[in-house]
Write a structure and sequence with these properties.
The protein is an all-alpha fold. The protein contains eight helices and no strands. The protein is globular. The two termini are 31 Å apart.
Length: 264
């Protein structure tokens, strides 16, 4: 009789998540910037309002996530559609909390930090690790997407706080976050700091990076932007994301992982 302890891993479960490479981060930043401009386009330019836009984007997230969970392998366009849905939801949900409910950027960000830390703790206790390179069960996959949903919402709140309340402005905030991300990249290469920790810090910060860069693209010149508007900016970013996906996934050579992780 086999007395080996049963593991949580599902032998027939296929990891449908992409490798963490330089191209991944480029696509992630593009997708989250698109989430910022797309969310603002629906809520403000089209005047749907924050609550209605949040409900619409949450519906898109639920549908896209359902397709992702039912898929049998990694489909790039489906995966990035879910990422965009989390980012657009994050944009309008954060704006609803901070502006419509009157919580303000600092309080809204604090609430989202608490939610995110709770999710990561539950994920770690339930699954055994929070590594995106070790998603081997359906439960871990669900944790992955819910965590991303709230990390993108938190990223929006942080980006708005830096751009509006810190005095740095859109461009100054973008430069600050760019510098922090460069430091994280250096730490990942030259130190033994946990790659999982660095991944999640970088993942969260790429959202305010996208949010502030999106503001640089859309805001008028007198506010420090280039005045492309939300509609044109969204189309440009969508085209860039599609081209990047086409180029990256057609490459036959194996990419070199960046911030590769090991289980903890």
């Amino acid at each position: 009789m086999n007395t080996k302890t049963k593991t949580l891993e599902q032998p027939d479960f296929i990891n449908k998540l992409p490798m963490i490479t330089v191209a991944f981060w480029i696509m992630k930043i593009t997708a989250t910037t698109l989430g910022e401009t797309g969310g603002d386009w629906l809520s403000m330019t089209m005047k749907f309002g924050y609550l209605a836009s949040t409900l619409i984007f949450f519906g898109l997230f639920v549908v896209a996530l359902g397709c992702q969970l039912m898929s049998k392998k990694h489909f790039p366009y489906l995966y990035w559609t879910v990422i965009i849905a989390t980012s657009t939801f994050g944009t309008t949900m954060s704006d609803f909390m901070d502006r419509t409910l009157g919580l303000g950027y600092a309080k809204g960000a604090a609430i989202l930090v608490a939610i995110l830390l709770t999710l990561l703790t539950l994920w770690r206790l339930t699954v055994g690790n929070v590594s995106v390179n070790d998603v081997r069960t359906r439960k871990a996959e669900v944790f992955y997407w819910v965590t991303i949903l709230f990390s993108n919402t938190l990223g929006t709140a942080l980006g708005d706080f830096l751009a509006d309340d810190s005095g740095l402005g859109f461009f100054g905030s973008w430069l600050l976050i760019t510098g922090i991300l460069a430091v994280i990249l250096g730490v990942s290469y030259f130190t033994k700091v946990s790659k999982i920790l660095l991944f999640w810090i970088a993942f969260i910060l790429t959202r305010p990076f996208g949010a502030t860069f999106g503001d640089v693209l859309t805001k008028p010149h007198d506010q420090g932007g280039v005045n492309f508007g939300t509609g044109y900016s969204s189309l440009i970013l969508l085209g860039l994301l599609i081209v990047t996906i086409l180029v990256y996934y057609r490459k036959k050579n194996k990419p070199t992982p960046v911030l590769a992780q090991t289980s903890v």
